[in-house]
Design goal:
alpha/beta, D-Maltodextrin-Binding Protein, domain 2, Double Stranded RNA Binding Domain, five-stranded mixed beta sheet, about 30% helix, binds the ligand NCc1[nH]cc(CCC(=O)O)c1CC(=O)O, porphyrin biosynthesis, Porphobilinogen deaminase, Porphobilinogen_deaminase_C, EC 2.5.1.61
Amino acid sequence: MIRLGTRRSALANAQATLVADALRNLGHEVEVIPIATTGDADKVSPVEQIGGTGIYVSSLRDALLADEIDIAVHSLKDLPTAPIDGLTIGAIPVREDPRDVLVARDGLTLGELPRGALIGTGAPRRAAQIDALGLGVECTGVRGNVDTRIGLVTSGKVDAVVLARAGLARLGRLAEVTETLDPIQVLPSPGQGALGVECRAGDTAILAALAPLEDPATRAAVTAERQLLATLEAGCTAPVGALAEVVEGEDGPELWLRGALGQDDGVRRLSANGAVDDPVVLGKALAYELLERT
Ligand SMILES: NCc1[nH]cc(CCC(=O)O)c1CC(=O)O
């Protein structure tokens, strides 16, 4: 029996079910155990005030270390980049679409929103990149789950909200998307759309069970993105966008990493290519480049 710990939100549940079903298809028995987290308990305070990076994952990690669960399913973009003693990411399954989307009133796109329109997003990364487009729209902080955020549009409190496409896909709510934002305008959060299945580092039976869920291309991409973030020493709420993809280079597959860093005077964007089997080097190199030119 594999004990799988998950947060209680609808999205976390959908993600846990994906992993549980994949393991069941491989012949394992899986028990899903819901676990409360600080981020879920306090839905009102700005994330930065109640602990920032990690508020959604610390209870799950505690449960792993206490041997109350065997695996924890995380959204990789909510997982702090610093490794934890005794734990490891046993599998990174194939990624969902990593892009951000707009859910706007009246089916509008970003370019169709009138000047002065109010866009709800609590993420400095999204606000910085949207501001840099010079559309004359205004970003305002919002929190809450996907339902709450879309509700702000329906009730007319904001004209639009920006969300991760992956979350809406997993909740079966893609029909509400009015525009998928091109990464040339808005780069997603490092790790967005990917799941990380965490387990105890020495748990060989669980590591073996998780191995078939692994997608090497996704791991390479998110490793580069998360290394970029770690090197920039930014937490989950800092204005860093990143997207890596395995592309066909002259001598075979290579990793292409794009990065965006929000600053007082705008957003700096750079990209670089590197070896698929050396994502850490690529992430660091692009981070240094982004910093040098500031
Ligand atoms: N910060 C909350 C969060 N964490 C993961 C997702 C979506 C799923 C994913 O990115 O894998 C979301 C919601 C959102 O940003 O719209």
